[in-house]
Amino acid sequence: MRPEADLPAIIDALPLINYSAPCYRIVDFATLTGSMIPLYTLGPGKKGQRYTPKMGPNALYVAEDVVTAQAEYHRVLRAVLVADPTYHVIANPTVQLTIQVNLERVLDLTDKNILTALGTTVDELTGPWRKQMIKKLFCPTQVLANAVCANGSIQAMRYPSAQGHDYSNLIIWEERVQLPSFVQVRDTTGTLSARIPPKRAYRRRTR
Amino acid sequence: MNERLNVAVLDPDACLAQLDKTKGPVELTLVPSASAEDLLNSVIVDEPDIILLDFEMPGISGLELTKRLRAANPGIPILLLSANPDWSILEGDPLIEIVRSPIDPKEVLLRISRLIHGLAQDEASRDFRLPNMVVDELRADSGRIDAKKVAEMFDMSIPVLAKIIDVGEPALYKTPDARSVQTKLLDFERIAWGLLKLTGSIRGMRIWLNAQNVELDNELPINYIKDGHVEDIAAMVEDALLGHPS
Fold it and tell me: With an 8 Å Cβ cutoff, are A72 and B219 in contact?
């Protein structure tokens, strides 16, 4: 990673992409139905995430495809099975959320030219971050995210998943998503309907 | 409507008597016997669906009675209630389940359902209980989280737990469910809850806690807990429960 002080100028010069695709999250059924907030954006800043330091901005993390979403959800189970392949899994119910993402200014960290410009690598971006956060060590992904977020116009970053280099995820900063950009749960039943920015209540026109 | 089962039981106490009023995956009709001999006769004559026995009974041991019942009817399922069961002697019998007393009526119904439907033959399901049942076991009669039960579930000693939550050992032994330690013990409950849902059992939870973890640079989560980072590990587990892309 380039020195923190150099990042703003480098980021300003980087190309951004349009992004329009369905993305995914697999969530524990009881946890989701307990809150019924499918697009919850306060968690990352509260607990810290790979691209969100504690006390960081509201953000939503999504996986780019169903396979990645499954891999992200089952990472605990995968660690158990690596440690003991004879373990017999007893799985609990989950919900697969499909989230339509339409954004205009996304920084693509899966683009090798962008990684080169930032002086980083896929290994650095997918390396352990939680230990760094807990032990208050240098955490390159959070430093990079701070600089990108400070840019002021970038709405999201597409980044390689730690669950496999062929997988990609997105971090979306809630306050940057303004119409015509939007992030919306696809649910024909309306049970899980949610959108960023939120839909305004219908107002009757008055004279 | 749930399946209704006839349960032969020897001299049911007040706790067992409430089983036929508890809702669960099966419904029970208790058929009490006054003595061990009556129970043996009942097993041959009435052919109940299952036998419920207390391991510690006056006059005859649960083990001895189990052997005689098994000889009288080799195919009948038996559920044993015991505070301190001798597992080794009964291991390998797929028609025997042991429930630790004091009993949770709902758990007894679940275990009876398993036994009747042949699930007890599956070794992997031996420790199957719903996550909320297991987490409920962390709580004392007061409704507060019990440090001794937390230590047992996380396979650590009371002195180690006392050090983690920064409480004196004597105080923790004396009042393991003290109000003053509840906030710190709540993070343990969060970890247990999440891992039970993600892995399905206490065994799975312990494997994860003691396995190298890539998010922690291949260090063990249990060592982070012992270093006092309980809240961080709870957050890590909850992130997985929420499928948080990493």
Answer: no
Question: Are B203 and A87 in contact (CB < 8 Å)?
Answer: yes
Nearest to B195 among A47, A76, A94 (CB): A76
**Bridge partner list, A183:** A101, A196
Tokens of A88: 């017999």
In a domain, A202, yes or no: no
Task: Report domain extents, chain B.
Answer: 3-126, 132-241
**pLDDT over 70 percentage in chain B:** 86
Q: Tell me whether the omega of the peptide bond preceding residue B102 falls within 30 degrees of 0, making it cis.
A: yes
Distance CA A185, CA A95 (A): 12
DSSP string computed for B80-101: EEESS--HHHHTT-TTEEEEES
Letter for the amino acid at B151? A
| Mean pLDDT of all residues belonging to chain A | 92
Measured between CA atoms, the residue of chain A closest to residue B229 is A134
- Residues with Cβ within 8 Å of B74's Cβ and at least 6 positions away in sequence, in order, are none
Answer yes or no: is A197 within a domain. no
Q: Count Cβ–Cβ pairs < 8 Å, chain A vs chain B.
A: 121
Interchain proximity B244–A72, CB inside 8 Å: yes
Express each pLDDT in A93-116 by its tens digit.
999 999 999 999 999 999 999 999
Residues from chain B contacting residue A27 (CB–CB below 8 Å): 241-243
Range of the domain at A65: 4-187
Tell me: the pLDDT tens digits for A139-194? 999 999 999 999 999 999 999 999 987 899 999 999 999 999 999 999 888 888 89
The reply to whether A193 falls in a domain is no
Chain B contact probe: residue of A90, A98, A110, A142 with most B CBs at under 10 A: A90
Which residues of chain A have a CB within 8 Å of the CB of B123? 88
Looking at residue B129, what is its pLDDT? Answer: 57
Interface of A with B in 93-132 (CB under 8 A): 94, 128-131
Report the mean per-residue pLDDT for chain B. Answer: 83
Structure tokens at A185: 């749960």
User: How far is A46 from chain B, CA to nearest CA, in Å?
Assistant: 10
For residue A163, list chain B residues with Cβ-Cβ distance below 8 A: 246
Contact B164, B191 (CB under 8 A): no
**Whole-angstrom Cα distance, residue A92 to residue A181?**
35
Q: How many domains does chain A have?
A: 1
B3-126 is a CATH 3.40.50.2300 domain: yes
Say which of A79, A128, A133 has its CB closest to residue B208: A79
Q: What is the pLDDT of residue B133?
A: 72
- Cβ A101 vs Cβ A172: under 8 Å: yes
Q: What is the pTM of this model?
A: 0.70
Interface pTM, i.e. ipTM: 0.90
